[in-house]
């Protein structure tokens, strides 16, 4: 755990307009360790998701942080946050979504299992739904073939006990 994190941002439609979701995934367990949502696609969105991950996981220096090349991740403020916490920056090759495939897979799962089936009246409704999905279902109950069909939380407990 806490050796390599992946980050990205996706868009969720609501009747009020787009809701942007930034997420941080620990590749070891596929757990979403940080996330943030906003009606604005600004660098603070990515920063808030990373701050949540840092606060929750308290990683040691040397963690590899991988993201796309979006302006949020290239910003001086985001890069300074990585440096302050001793994280190594890795970014996908230009236009290559395969470099961040597990993160893209999470967003696909979120949309397939949740948001594509909803017609959100408000951003707040979407925020509540996505919060519940990540915290109450995905991290604790969603089974992953890459984890021997265990949830991220179960997998982390198994590894810790071993």
Please state the average pLDDT score.
Answer: 95
Report the span from N to C terminus. Answer: 13 Å
Question: Shape from CA axes?
Answer: globular
Spans of at least 5 consecutive residues whose pLDDT stays below 50 are none
Give the helix tally.
6
Strand order of the largest sheet: 3-2-1-4-5
Largest sheet, in brief, is: 5 strands, mixed
Order of helices and strands: EEEHEHHEHHH
Radius of gyration: 15 Å
Percent helix: 40-55%
Question: How much strand?
Answer: 15-25%
The helix-and-strand class reads alpha/beta
- Strand runs, count: 5
Task: Give a written overview of the molecule.
With 162 residues, the chain is an alpha/beta fold. 41% of the residues lie in helices and 23% in strands. It contains 6 helices and 5 strands, in the order βββαβααβααα. The chain has helices at residues 43-57, 71-74, 76-84, 101-113, 123-138, 152-161; strands spanning 4-14, 17-26, 31-38, 64-67, 88-91. The protein has a 5-stranded mixed sheet, with helices on both faces. The radius of gyration is 15 Å and the shape is globular. The mean pLDDT is 95.
């Amino acid at each position: 755990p806490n050796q390599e994190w992946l980050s990205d941002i996706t868009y969720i439609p609501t009747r009020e307009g787009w809701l942007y979701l930034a997420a941080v995934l620990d590749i070891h367990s596929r757990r979403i360790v940080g996330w943030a949502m906003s009606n604005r696609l600004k660098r603070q969105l990515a920063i808030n998701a990373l701050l949540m991950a840092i606060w929750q996981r308290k990683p040691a220096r040397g963690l590899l942080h991988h993201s796309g090349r979006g302006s949020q991740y290239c910003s001086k403020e985001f890069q300074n946050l990585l440096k302050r916490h001793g994280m190594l920056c890795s970014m996908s090759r230009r236009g290559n979504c395969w470099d961040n495939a597990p993160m893209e897979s999470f967003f696909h799962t979120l949309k397939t299992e949740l948001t594509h089936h909803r017609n959100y009246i408000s951003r707040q409704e979407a925020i509540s739904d996505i919060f519940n999905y990540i915290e109450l279902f995905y991290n604790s109950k969603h089974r992953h073939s890459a984890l021997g069909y265990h949830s991220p939380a179960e997998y982390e407990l198994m590894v810790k006990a071993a």
